[in-house]
Amino acid sequence: MICCHDSRRWEAIQRCLAAVTAQRREGDEVIVVVDRNPDLYARLKSASGGVRVVLGGDTGGLSAARNTGLQNAASTIVAFVDDDAVPAGGWLDAIAKSFADPQVMMVGGEIFPQWPGGSRPTWLPLPFDWVVGCDYQGMPPVGAPVRNPIGANMAVRRDLAIAAGGFHTGLGRAGENAAGAEETDLAIRMRQIWPAKEIMRIGGASVRHSISPLRCSRRYFIRRCIAEGRSKAMLGHRGGYRDSLSAERRYLRSALPRAVAADVVGLRRGDLNGLQRAIATIIGTGAAGLGWLTGLVSRPRGTDGAWGIGAEPTCVVDVDGSSGVPVRPIPELGHRAVDAVHLRVRLDGRQIASIRVPIGPAIPASTQIRTAVDGAVAGVGRRAYPTWPAVDQTVTAALCTLGRSPRLAATVQAILAEQTLVPAEVVVIDNDPRSGATRAALTAVADNPRLRIVEEPRRGLSCARNTALAAARGDIVVFTDDDAEPEPDWLERLAAVFAADTDGDVTCVTGAVIPAELGRAIFRWFERAARFDRGLDPMVWHPGVSRSLDWLRRWEPTAKEGARGLAYPIAGSEFGSGNNMAFRRARIIELGGFDELLGAGTSTRGGEDLDAFRRVNLAGDAIVYQPAAIVRHHHRDNRAALRRQLYGYGTGMSASVCRHLVRGPNEAVGVAQALPGGLRLLFDPRSPKNAAKREGYPLALGVVEIVGYAAGPAHLTLSALRRATRQRAATTRHIGSERELPVSMDVQVAASVAEAGNAGSAVR
Q1: Number of continuous H segments (helices) and E segments (strands) in the chain
Q2: Residue 517's beta-bridge partner residues?
Q3: Tens of pLDDT along 218-230?
Q4: How many CB atoms neighbour CB 455 within 10 A?
Q5: CA separation for the pair 321, 327 (Å, rounded)
Q6: Across 348-450, where does the E strand assignment appear?
Q7: How many CB atoms lie within 10 A of CB 366?
Q8: pTM flag (> 0.90)
Q9: Residues 6 or more apart whose Cβ sits within 8 Å of residue 537
């Protein structure tokens, strides 16, 4: 594969073609892709017998041209060589031999410079030969794994390159610009998708790269260094700074200091050019750093670091274990600015993989997704899983809302009409009935006989959830939020766990909460700070965990004992989150329901779900995490909202811990024991909570969350004072009546249940 665009390189192109075609074996093909130069295309078509000549992609640029070549190629292996490079004898044979190992997915050969006039610029440092597209001092030796090859001489397995999305057209050269890194981007994506496969630097496949006089100038040197820095900034955003800068960190730590030291030593020995090379090293490093910094800050306004690239939605693909065929059609996303898809692959309903699949223009998105799904299934092997028992309890789906979410109607519709297990009812708690927003949003489904809208004018998520428990008629109550999208089998997966638990140990089941989209940096920041997802394996927490695992593994062979974090179980964050949880209704009411001093809508702003999980666990009941029960969550889409949310997570967590602290001496001892681990979790940069925040995570978000933790006790005190004030006012209004407002959580919920049963508190 030879990509070209410049008619002035005609002689160089002919030399390259002659060297390549001389090595062609039976069955090999040579393709020349011409980028936006019809005259050059016509000239090559008429002069290149036995060589396929095609026009490049509509978008133009080297990446688009290479994608066109991938799409047109019929071979298993595609070798790329620049139009101004001449392969040495044995080049093609060495490349073919390297791919005899099925674990090798990409290789790079040696690239030697052919300097104008035959002499190297005396001022150019050896570690900077990458500026002219050649091997450089400090790169891995021949025979060693590399992060990526240099594009002037590389080869790749065609099917893997296409499945990874091809070359990203937002990177790479276009005309006379000096950008690059498109091959680095592809290599990183391939490594992320197939981590067990290798990218190697090989010997015997060398090319001689012709360097033009323009590229030997200091001006080009600086311009190329700046462009490389900017490309690496873009690359860091796309693939993660750890992967995109791994080779550069080693290069800066070792190769450059050694080169400067050698030049200084040479200067002392009389080599006056050593001073020029040392200065060029410093200037080139600074120029690349400047390009990287300008690349970081030059994103379009309003993108919160998204760099203007496409969305990255999450897609759940179910595969039949016996046939390997997707249960539902794989979505065709087209090229509507979709940069990647985050796949959750389920085999017979069991999660087996979480994969990021880059979407590129070389092949339809559905084909790229299917290739990734096939690879995930092949990795675990097809197997026969037992079928979960039929659900014999009635299920109430509950959703609490202020009516403000634009996704409210879609979420309710998904529960009412799209679930494989039809719920007995869907109870929507209107926590702001005065506004009328909830009823207005649900006008289209208001006539559904299984929908009940229950008004709860007392603000607070815990109040609303307790009202849902009181109004529910089902044995199992399942909660989600109004900004979540449940999968069609969501209710069935949660309820089946209760049906399989013949001993009645399980009081709570939580499910997986995955991001609906990750295309913007702000969504990824949230995932680093407050990841809802608890992984791919089912887990159980129970004092009799061995017995619980025995029955759970009958249905979920990969089930394991639940994770226990540094502050277990006081923090309560191991078990799941409130936007995907289910309870045995009678038992959670017996345990006191949701603490109305906690939760959104109170001063504490959160923590009510963690408090409920903790009380279930400490009561000796089992909690099961079922990752097959999936909802997709829409994260906050602006920094101000994210800051408020993270502050609320901090206040809610510490307030719930303080609430537990004051419940009795045993609880206080538990808090004291968990406190050192909790502090380490918050402040140790190596802790599980902080390890993911090292690169690119805004310091301000971390600070505001810590401030929330510190302010939590004050928020809890304020919440208690406000509740006491409301109770006194309500008691005064009810003097002389037959009942007063309940004063404790368990009494309150029990009274609400009795009232709901006797008076019918649900209002349509």
Answers
A1: 25, 23
A2: 313
A3: 999 999 888 888 8
A4: 17
A5: 10
A6: 350-358, 395-401, 425-430
A7: 15
A8: no
A9: 558, 559, 560, 627
Question: CB-side exposure of 624: number of CA atoms within 13 Å?
Answer: 31
Smallest Cα–Cα separation from 62: which of 43, 34, 21? 34
- 337 DSSP assignment: S
Give me 550's structure tokens: 């025995």
With CA atoms as reference, report the closest residue to 130 among 229, 203, 6.
229
- Say how far apart CA 537 and CA 626 lie, in whole Å: 8
Q: Are 452 and 427 in contact (CB under 8 A)?
A: yes
Query: Could you give the CA distance from residue 46 to residue 69 in angstroms, rounded to a whole number?
Result: 19
The candidate with the shortest Cα–Cα distance to 633, out of 522, 517, 751, 756, is 517
Per-chain mean pLDDT for the chain: 84
Residue bearing tokens 């913007």: 520
Residue given tokens 């008429």 in the structure block? 46
Taking the C-alpha atoms of residue 556 and residue 351, their distance in angstroms, rounded to an integer, is 10
Residue type, 688: P
Q: How far is CA 708 from the centre of its chain?
A: 26
DSSP bridge partners of 346: 318, 351
pLDDT computed for residue 742 by the predictor: 35
Question: 187 near 242, Cβ under 8 Å?
Answer: no
What is d(CA 563, CA 600) in angstroms, rounded to the nearest whole number?
26
Show the beta-strand stretches assigned E in 423-572. Answer: 425-430, 451-455, 476-480, 484-486, 506-515, 539-541, 560-561
- Helix, strand and coil percent figures for the chain, each rounded to 5: 45, 15, 40
Cα 438–750–754 angle (5° rounding)?
A: 75
Q: Tell me, what's the pLDDT at 360? A: 67
Tokens for 40, please give them: 């050059």
Q: Are 621 and 505 in contact (CB under 8 A)?
A: yes
Distance of CA 106 to the CA centre of its chain: 25
Amino acid letter at 37? N
- Segment 559-581, tens digit of pLDDT: 999 999 888 888 888 999 999 99
